[in-house]
Structures are given as structure tokens and as C-alpha cells.
Amino acid sequence: RFVYHQRAADLGSGISGNMVHAALLGLMYAKVLGYKLIEVIHVIDDAHVYSRQYEKIEQLVNMPDGRLPTVWLEESINNMFAFRREHIHMSDYHPTGPKMRIDTPI
């Protein structure tokens, strides 16, 4: 298990990237330590949504569920600091809806 503790998160615009980064970091740690990542636990102390984001978040939540993509790392990399973008691979990525931009109010 990989536990990722985050102090605060904007659920509308930032959380998806945070979750991807946490899962990827967990995969990288597991790879170099010789483990298999089986679960990512993402803990957020202050998860919030701004009122200007409600409509788009409602659209996002009501999109049909899709199949999760497959992500794997190159076998040859055994050093945490040696990972580069080209060492990360993904397949079976099929978004279920249009690309959305949910701004963070300033």
C-alpha cells in the first residue's frame, strides 16, 4: 500500500492530477524496492469545491464510468532518480467524455 497524505485539494481542478502523481510515485517506489503496488490510499485534510465549479463538477460526476488505463514502467530502471517521462507507458486509455477545464476561482 502507498499512503499519500495531502494537506488541501481543489476537487474541481487539481485533484485528478494529484491522484495520478500519487499513483505514479507509488509505482516508482514499488518498482525500485522490488514490491508490487496493490493500493493507493489518498488522504486529503481539506477537500473543497468552489461554488463557481458546481455545474462542471456535476457534469463530470454524471459521466459514464470508463475502463481504467494500464500503466507500466520500463523494467530497466532501478533507480528512483533515473525515471524520465519516456520510461512511463500507458495503454487502454479511452476517455468517456469531452476534455473539461474547471478553473480555480481567484
What does the secondary structure layout of this molecule look like, with pairings?
Elements: E1 2-10, H1 15-33, E2 40-48, H2 54-61, E3 70-73, E4 88-91
What are its keywords?
106 residues; 2 helices
Structure described in brief:
This protein has 106 residues and is α+β, with helices and mostly antiparallel strands. Helices cover 25% and strands 25% of the residues. The strands form two sheets. It has a two-stranded parallel sheet with strand order 1-2. It has a two-stranded antiparallel sheet with strand order 3-4.
Number of strands: 4
How far apart the termini lie comes to 36 Å
Which class of secondary structure composition applies to the elements? alpha+beta
| Regions with little confidence, pLDDT below 50 for 5+ residues | none
- Tell me the strand percentage band: 15-25%
Kindly state the mean pLDDT as a whole number?
90
Describe this structure in words.
The protein is an alpha+beta fold and 106 residues long. The chain has two helices and four strands. It has helices at 15-33, 54-61; strands at 2-10, 40-48, 70-73, 88-91. Strands 1-2 form a two-stranded parallel ribbon. Strand 1 (2-10), helix 1 and strand 2 (40-48) form a beta-alpha-beta unit. The longest helix has 19 residues, at 15-33. 4% of the residues are buried. The model has no long low-confidence stretch (mean pLDDT 90).
